[in-house]
Amino acid sequence: MIEWIFWLSFAGLLYIYIGYPVLIRGLAKLRPLARIKELPTFPTCEDDRVSVVISSFNDAVHLEQKLRDLIASPQSVWIGEILVGSDGSTDNTPAIISAIGEPKIELISFDSRRGKPAVLNDLVSRCRFPIVVLCDSRQLLSHDAIPHLVSNFADPRVGVVSGELVLKSRDDETTAGKGIGAYWRYEKLIRRAEGRFRSVPGATGAIYAIRRTLFRPIPESTLLDDVVVPMQAIEQGALCVFERKAIAWDRPSDTLEKEATRKRRTIAGAAQLIAHHPQWLLPWKNPIWFEYISHKIMRLASPLLLAICLVSHVALIQDHFYFWLFVGHIFFYYSAFAGWFCQKLGQKSTLFGIQLMFLMLNATTVAALWDAARGRFRVTWQRA
Question: How far apart are CA 261 and CA 382, in angstroms?
Answer without folding.
Answer: 9
